[in-house]
Amino acid sequence: MFKEILENVRKASPLIHNITNYVTVNDCANILLACGASPIMADDWEEVEEITSICGGLNINIGTLNQRIICSMILAGKKSNELDHPVILDPVGAGASKLRTETSGKLLDQVKLTVVRGNISEIRTLALGKGTTKGVDADIADRITEENIDNAVRFAKDFSGKIKAVVAITGAIDIVADSEKAYIIRNGHPMMSKITGTGCMLTAMTAAYLVANRGCSLEATAAATCAMGLCGELALDRLSKNDGNSTYRNYIIDEVFNLDGEKLEKGAKYEVR
Amino acid sequence: MFKEILENVRKASPLIHNITNYVTVNDCANILLACGASPIMADDWEEVEEITSICGGLNINIGTLNQRIICSMILAGKKSNELDHPVILDPVGAGASKLRTETSGKLLDQVKLTVVRGNISEIRTLALGKGTTKGVDADIADRITEENIDNAVRFAKDFSGKIKAVVAITGAIDIVADSEKAYIIRNGHPMMSKITGTGCMLTAMTAAYLVANRGCSLEATAAATCAMGLCGELALDRLSKNDGNSTYRNYIIDEVFNLDGEKLEKGAKYEVR
Amino acid sequence: MFKEILENVRKASPLIHNITNYVTVNDCANILLACGASPIMADDWEEVEEITSICGGLNINIGTLNQRIICSMILAGKKSNELDHPVILDPVGAGASKLRTETSGKLLDQVKLTVVRGNISEIRTLALGKGTTKGVDADIADRITEENIDNAVRFAKDFSGKIKAVVAITGAIDIVADSEKAYIIRNGHPMMSKITGTGCMLTAMTAAYLVANRGCSLEATAAATCAMGLCGELALDRLSKNDGNSTYRNYIIDEVFNLDGEKLEKGAKYEVR
User: Fold this and answer.
1) H-type helices in chain B, by residue range?
2) Burial of B10: CB neighbours in 10 Å, binned 0-12, 13-18, 19+
3) pLDDT digit of tens for each residue in chain C (273 aa)?
4) B66, B92, B126: which is closest to B197 by C-alpha?
5) What cofactors are annotated for this protein (chains A, B, C) (predicted)?
6) What is this model's ipTM?
């Protein structure tokens, strides 16, 4: 099934509106192009409703917040809801500051989200209204392991039921869940955490997968998550002795560019609970 | 002649003031360095006039607009006019929102531009005051083909005459025209559209070509356009099986870095009408 | 000793708060990850004090200024002082505009800095309260050569004594000095000036070195400066005929990723005066 999901993205070539941080924005644009979609970035309140109207979906990422773009996020989110476009939220650093925690909460309250994707600390912060985040990385105390995974799956399903959105928690093990069903995904490699933006890139790509696969948001999100992790594995195989995180970043985007449905179907490592 | 034009850039090493979007800004800086120029980015109204005064030319790119930088664009543009510096406008996404269309119009009205460079939908929007743009890509209905090229050349010349600036329309076929003469350029490769920022990079590089070649803006713009397309071709030849759009981006900038006058003269594919 | 300094960074994995420009921000994030640290970028006055509180150190870079983030720089700087965190300033383009010169002066006045790192023109501007800067590059008249190096060392020591911060002046020859002791560093390669952001990256990395090596700011800054230059040399060795500045940028970050204490100890080229 993941094969068709990926192919639908290449066929539909969805246009994605991104209101995102200025740290990883270039990588987000290039990964959208790599997976077959088109990016547009626009964050001013004067144009976000119009821009989102010509797009198929909206990617909101709070990595570098300020009041001007928070306003734009709400406006674009509401317009997307009105037009029934998928909306994905990446609550980067929720828990690290009141501004990030409260903005995430405001977006959850005022915008109907299709998917929320973050690390476990960020998602826990959203669920509890407060949290601890080690900057933009997950707090080590929160991390999902083989030992606590049943609890994590239950948490993800409960939170999904509460917010009526797919919940994607990524880390060493990824969980993608709606209220009834969870994908536990074991693609990826620890080296991915040595690049800035693998999370942001996955969120952007998921937006494209959602737009091209309406009606199966859970599966589309799981497929995108497997795809990103798999590309992290394939890119790692290409690294030679002198390569480091910068070359790795390029190779991951390259692998997304070259990924096809067959490779994804074969390489995806997941179980359903 | 293109040989001398390129060599003039390496000799003069012009300093270019960029007020540009945050998506492709790093690539714009690196391509300016690659072609022999120096970049400076500054977008606050408090400093843009001073910054533009120490530079040789100004690159205005509306890829991620907000009120603060629109004001800066106008101020810097007027100061550049006062100092007789070349000014180039990249109306990214004109037609996709009122803000972009109106800001482009305002810049056309209030700043004397040396060159306007965009895709056909953006340029058509500028000419008509409205338009349709598929995000930041050209609308397929607008695209220049061998069949409609005579019309497109006439349109480019007419619009150039009207705004008294060189008009550069880039796509599968590029047209660079003033009111009397048009270069039809067939360098480049479709894969270039799979990278974010090839247009932005070309605009930035054109600014450097203009500054180093005062008095022949048409030829300088045509040379820069051929150079970018040619580097896209040369970079493509370097790609191996596993490479994708991210490596391609790096190789294009690398080719600009390594391009010399001989290679450009030999590789440029154009006719004049 | 540089060996231990580098290893301390990898052991401590310090979290660095960056208020930096949008041109090279992605490279700064990736080089922090490459050297073993973690980056967080946050520039809104509503959150910078909280963010800086969860970090170990603060990197302030004025490469793309506006009023909003100047306010944030002051707030974050003062909070860092309160918490006794190291603070490093990169006065990008000081001398090129009143805004940059005055903002640097304001930061010097209101924030206790641990290190100031810039090119000779920028540092001279800070010392004199005015200056000439060729955009973001050093003015050629200012450049440090074997002939004027004694004067430059004296200048660096005097200025360090005056501002009570380590002064790092980088260029063809680097000087890292406190009021009594100066490291003269001869690592690096002229090709590094063909990439945007080598200075910004060094400043970000120095912040990590400072946090992991409290009590020896001079040595930590010298070690980071040698490390960056050495990685520029090692990356150059990897370049093949068709490579240019974009590949070079990737390789430099890769070398930082692969650098260990032994390599740094062996490759560092410096004398102490």
Assistant:
1) 2-12, 25-34, 48-54, 67-82, 98-110, 120-128, 149-163, 198-211, 217-238, 245-258, 261-267
2) middle
3) 999 999 999 999 999 999 999 999 999 999 999 999 999 999 999 999 999 999 999 999 999 999 999 999 999 999 999 999 999 999 999 999 999 999 999 999 999 999 999 999 999 999 998 766 666 677 666 788 888 999 999 999 999 999 999 999 999 999 999 999 999 999 999 999 999 999 999 999 999 999 999 999 999 999 999 999 999 999 999 999 999 999 999 999 999 999 999 999 999 999 999
4) B92
5) Mg(2+)
6) 0.96
Residue A201 is labelled as binding a ligand: no
Residue B118: CA count within 13 A, CB half-sphere: 32
Q: Which of residues 61-120 of B touch A (CB under 8 A)?
A: 63-67, 93, 96-100
A neighbours by CB contacts (3+ pairs under 8 Å): B, C
Could you write out the DSSP letters of every residue in A48-94? HHHHHHHSSEEEEE-TT--HHHHHHHHHHHHHHHHTT--EEEE-TTB
Q: Which CATH class is domain B2-272?
A: alpha beta
Q: Do B21 and A39 touch (CB under 8 A)?
A: no
CA C187 to each of CA C173, C263, C269, C271: distance values in angstroms, whole numbers, following the listed order: 8, 13, 6, 11
**In what helix (H) or strand (E) does residue A99 lie, and over which residues does it extend?**
helix A98-110
Report the alpha-carbon distance of residue B232 to residue B239 in Å, rounded.
11
Please give the Cα distance from B166 to B156 (Å, whole number): 9
Residue of B nearest to C70 (CA): B44
Q: What is the pTM of this model?
A: 0.97
Asked if the C-beta of C257 comes within 8 angstroms of chain A's C-beta atoms, the answer is yes
- Contact list in B for residue A256 (CB cut-off 8 A) is 244
| Residue B197, marked binder | yes
Contact B184, B173 (CB under 8 A): yes
CA of B273 to nearest chain C CA: how many angstroms apart?
35
Strands B87-90 and B115-118: parallel
Say if the Cβ atoms of B47 and C135 lie within 8 Å.
no
Dihedral of the CA atoms A200, C232, C168, C111 (nearest 10)?
0
Phi and psi at B58, nearest 5°, equal -125, 130
- Does residue B205 have a known ligand-binding role? no
Chain A residues closer than 8 Å to C47 by CB: 65, 97-100
Q: Is C244 annotated as a binding residue?
A: no
